Amino acid sequence: MTTNSNSATDEICPAHALLKTFSGKWKPELFRSAVSAPLRFNSLLKQLPGANKQSLSVALKELEEAGILSKLTVKLKPLHIEYHLTDKGQQLIPIFEQLELLQHKR
Amino acid sequence: MTTNSNSATDEICPAHALLKTFSGKWKPELFRSAVSAPLRFNSLLKQLPGANKQSLSVALKELEEAGILSKLTVKLKPLHIEYHLTDKGQQLIPIFEQLELLQHKR
DNA sequence: TCAATAAGTCAGAAAAATATGACCACCAAC
DNA sequence: GTTGGTGGTCATATTTTTCTGACTTATTGA
């Protein structure tokens, strides 16, 4: 599911939007990586086994559109792009931590 | 994504499992419905516009396997089956409420 | 000027998720 | 003993997601 909006169900279930934001093969992984350090395209490609350009590109764009990552052009040494967690992204961290606790309880 | 386990990524990201549990077209909707009342197969089929037997059947089974719903055979009047939220399912409610708040904040 | 790194895009193929329509088994009422 | 409700399964088709491989633009270093 790569975030194709469905206005009907979106409005019925508010958490639906968030779940969609994180649906897809790579997005949870990307979010989690972004918690520890800013992301870079080519590094991700090497670090995530089985990942491909196209899918990463789309996933990054959608996380950006969802206001969870922000794209930053670093004008230094080897001029590159970094994806950082936004405030909204940071605010999600404690919520995911609660989910992890629930998982461990059983 | 119909919950095909990927032991590698599951272990890297614990929230991944939960996200998978709720991935798919109908699962968020089913969970949300189950919060207000037990679910019944044929009622869902009528109530959810566009839903089909096959997909509902699979979604219900997977939510059951994930320990979020439990199947109960009601041996009364018109002998039927009800899907109820388990304890684990109930514990997820406040977490989803937090997600809704985050959505509304921006 | 040539090659390398960085960050992509694009068209088409493959794989996975979802939908369709036919069918099945059980029970109860008529 | 046939009809109707309940809760499904199965094989197949369609749709959506994901992957592959070729190509692109910009910057940098030799």
Please provide a written account of the structure.
The structure is a homodimer of 106-residue chains. Chain A has six helices and two strands. The first copy, chain A, has 106 residues and is mainly alpha-helical. Chain A has a single domain (7-105), classed as Arc Repressor Mutant, subunit A (Orthogonal Bundle). Chain A has a two-stranded antiparallel sheet with strand order 1-2. In chain A, a hairpin with a 5-residue loop joins β1 (69-74) and β2. The longest helix of chain A is centred in the C-terminal third of the chain and has 19 residues, at 87-105. The interface between A and B is medium-sized, with 33 and 32 residues. Chain B binds a DNA duplex (30 and 30 nucleotides) through residues 1-2, 4, 24-26, 40-42, 45, 50-55, 57-58, 78-81.
Rg of chain A, please? 15 Å
Q: What topology, given as strand order, has the largest sheet of chain A? A: 1-2
Largest sheet data of chain A: 2 strands, antiparallel
Tally of extended strands of chain A?
2
How much strand content do the residues of chain A show?
A: 5-15%
Q: Which pair has the most extensive contact?
A: A-B, 33 and 32 residues
Number of helices of chain A: 6
Uncertain stretches of 5 or more adjacent residues of chain A: 1-10
**Helix content range of chain A:** 55-70%
Instruction: Briefly note the CATH topology name of chain A.
Output: Arc Repressor Mutant, subunit A
Q: Based on CA inertia axes, which overall geometry of chain A fits?
A: globular
CATH architectural name of chain A: Orthogonal Bundle
User: CATH class of chain A, please?
Assistant: Mainly Alpha
CA distance, first residue to last residue of chain A:
28 Å
Taken in chain order, the helices and strands of chain A follow as: HHHHHEEH
Number of domains of chain A: 1
Output mean pLDDT of chain A: 88
* Secondary-structure class of chain A: mainly alpha
**How would you classify the quaternary structure?**
homodimer
**What is the fourth-level CATH superfamily of chain A?**
Winged helix-like DNA-binding domain superfamily/Winged helix DNA-binding domain
